[in-house]
Amino acid sequence: MENIFQQQLADSRRRLIVDAAIAVIAEQGFQRTTVKQIAQMAGVADGTIYNYFKNKDAILLAIVEQFTEAEVRELDFNEAQKVPYAAFVQMYIKHRMDEIEANFAALKVVIAETIVNEALRTEVNRKIYTPAFEIAERYFQHLIAQGEMQPGDPVLRARLFAALPIGICVLRMLGDEHVVENWERYSAEIAALLTTFGATDDKTT
Question: Distance (Å, rounded) from C-alpha 38 to C-alpha 17?
Fold first, then answer.
């Protein structure tokens, strides 16, 4: 019981630090943010940060993990097998687009830093995106095998599934006014496009 409590306490403290880092980084950017500032925002001693993260890059990696909900991704796709593909797409894309909207200021910084920071980019791909794509590929392969999705390349579809929300996010970062003013419409259109993957011959005749 004590070990469980200690783990819960550690998880809570780690989440507190990540949330504090998101707030500071969103306000002043990654390069100008210091561990001391994150500690102050979290209300912990500077040294406490290093009990959970070896450096600032590790904190940024944790932010990406939180934004992408990496730890529950397999559960999401397992649950997806219990509902029609179209219903899952509608729910999932709406959720992802709402998350982008809610965290946009921090996401701008995170995406930019991930692109230019080679070591961080490598870790993000290895720890987050590669495992996520493998899960999504298995999901699409399952749908194809069950006849619930038209034949196609599950590897390609897994990446398109992720790329559309990310691409719209990047357009917004670049200042595309139409994207900014029609965010909800883009969410619906992305879901509609991805739903076509599931349009088998039987369903379209």
Answer: 7
Confidence of residue 80 (pLDDT cuts 50, 70, 90): confident
CA gap 191, 160 in Å, rounded: 12
Task: Tell me 72's DSSP state.
Answer: G
* CATH hierarchy code of domain 1-53: 1.10.10.60
Cα→Cα distances 198→39, 42, 100, Å: 47, 45, 25
Copy the structure tokens of residue 145: 């095998």
Question: End-to-end CA distance of the chain, in Å?
Answer: 58
Domain residue ranges in the chain: 1-53, 56-204
Neighbours of 10 (CB within 10 A): 12
Q: What pTM was computed for the model?
A: 0.81
CATH C-level class of 56-204 = mainly alpha
Write down the pLDDT at residue 71. Answer: 67
Instruction: Print the SS3 string covering 90-117.
Output: HHHHHHHHHHHHHCHHHHHHHHHHHHHC
Residue range 40-49: mean pLDDT, rounded: 93
82 falls in which pLDDT band (50, 70, 90)?
confident
